[in-house]
DNA sequence: GTGCTTGCAAACCCTTTGCAGTGAA
DNA sequence: TTCACTGCAAAGGGTTTGCAAGCAC
């Protein structure tokens, strides 16, 4: 692991991996780095292609396996556009995604104001709510200009 | 179309199809009926299997094509569990889904209280928000009992 | 040194496409 | 009668699995 900059092995996502008992391998760090450097959602194939520029022996299968781990750890998350799964992006804590449907840019926003809604739904339905998926889709400032 | 009960051809989903200029065929009505009768989300294959009990010449391909139309019309919607697309369910107007992660039961709840959040996000980011995906996941009353 | 991790290849499976026959309007 | 629609078969493409070699710890 000495041939990759230390800051990559020390970022938040890597810590989560290490903390969960996973080994910090070069392929995994390459995936982390790609997710970290990207402002858009990326498909596994896209991550694979960019990842090869960082670690050229990276395999597509490893990308899938790494994404599965990152998703389970809550470090990366699936992103949807029009209800269709379009790829992955890093999960920023308790944030949700705002996705530009034209260029794919992703912006996180804090999960606020959802609490009362959830409480009300729980009271009305008897369900216990333990997870929620909220994604907003629209146009980013640049794409609004574009047309 | 005389060999199917009139109430199926006259339901809300069928009206939407007809109104959009689509023909009300037996395969499409079978798909509608399956969606209407199910309280859970169903995969295309699941819809196909149930649909064959209603119209035995139904093809899987037609199920896919019909779901695509229904999705575009906002009559059916993709449902996710843990960020993963698990199938389709009828869309109830402006409602969102509450999914039981154990038995898959789906309950709709009205989209309320999201307005202020969206306005605030728009102001903060400069995005124009034109769609949102909100799904709550948890346990339904029966599954809470179960363990 | 140990055993988790990787990458290749191949299997898998879900989804889409081409096309000729069918049936709703 | 017309042309949208359907179903079959096949192609297509993304995802998963088996297994021997590799490497983090």
Question: Which tags fit this structure?
Answer:
homodimer; 147 residues; alpha+beta; Arc Repressor Mutant, subunit A; Dna Ligase, domain 1; 5 strands; globular; DNA-binding
If strands are numbered along the chain, what order do they take across the biggest sheet of chain A? 4-3-5
Largest sheet of chain A: 3 strands, mixed
- Pair with the biggest interface: A-B, 41 and 41 residues
What's the helix-strand series of chain A?
HHHHHEEEEHEH
Helix content range of chain A: 40-55%
User: Roughly what is the average pLDDT of chain A, rounded to an integer?
Assistant: 87
- Shape of chain A from CA axes? globular
Tally of structural domains of chain A: 2
Strand content of chain A: 15-25%
- CATH class placement of the largest domain in chain A: Mainly Alpha
CATH topology of the largest domain in chain A: Arc Repressor Mutant, subunit A
Tally of separate helices of chain A:
7
Layout of helices and strands, plus pairs?
2 copies of one chain form a homodimer.
Chain A: H1 6-9, H2 12-19, H3 26-37, H4 44-54, H5 60-73, E1 76-81, E2 84-90, E3 95-100, E4 106-110, H6 115-125, E5 128-139, H7 141-146
Parallel strand pairs in A: 3-5
Antiparallel strand pairs in A: 1-2, 3-4
Helix pairs in contact in A: 3-4, 4-5
Chain A binds a DNA duplex (25 and 25 nucleotides) through α3 and α5.
